[in-house]
Amino acid sequence: MKHTYNFQTIWVRAALILVLFVSNLTVQAGGPPTSAQVTASTTAFLKRFVNKEGEVNYKAIQKDPKQLDALLDDIASFSMKGASQAELYAFYLNAYNILVIGEIVSNYPVTSVQDMPGFFDKTQMLIGGEKMTLDELEHNKLRKLYDDPRLHFALVCGTTSCPRLSREAYMGKELFVQLNAQTKRVLTDPAFVKVDAEGKTVKLPEIFKWYESDFGMSGKTGVAYVNQFRDDKRVPTWFAMDYYTYDWRLNDQKDDSKK
Description:
10 helices, three-stranded mixed β-sheet, Grx-like_ET
């Protein structure tokens, strides 16, 4: 009787191992994630860990990294085959923002991305089966391919002076509308475009200086570019313009309960 019990136990364990093995093959056979799957997972993640001010709850992500890890896996294994240009554009925007969060979480607690040497130009990340840095992603996969200054308001590098991070992933079929909405939201934010009506001055973030050539390709730079998205809150063109110093502090949530 004892021998029969051992045989049955071994058989059951072997059967379970076989089931797990077959299940794993089935998952792998499903292939890389689709654009729709990555978009849905990204939105779910952002809505959970990013508040309405665009601040990220890095501490909470570090405590429960399952969603982040799954997203990083999806970004690494994403296949460009069959994706439209709009879907690729959206994928790279989302990938940049998630990879920034992932790298910060892996080094958290930190107070600034500047506390992580090589954050932008040295650390290699896997994106669609290709290794590259954040700088290479921004310059080679986005700026060189898409003549669109609005991307500078969609990319969020984890700092206080960055645009507010959207709680919704970018998606190919809605991308033009989303980018317009995000750009308008950023350029009407008084913390981003600082207008002093009494002093007749306006201060813009330094990205307008760093990427002046990008904005110039659109035909408008500085205040002229900003006013395209401000409707009735346009900045008078005769106001003195300057750039405020970039704030590299982390865009970390100050209150875990604030959503």
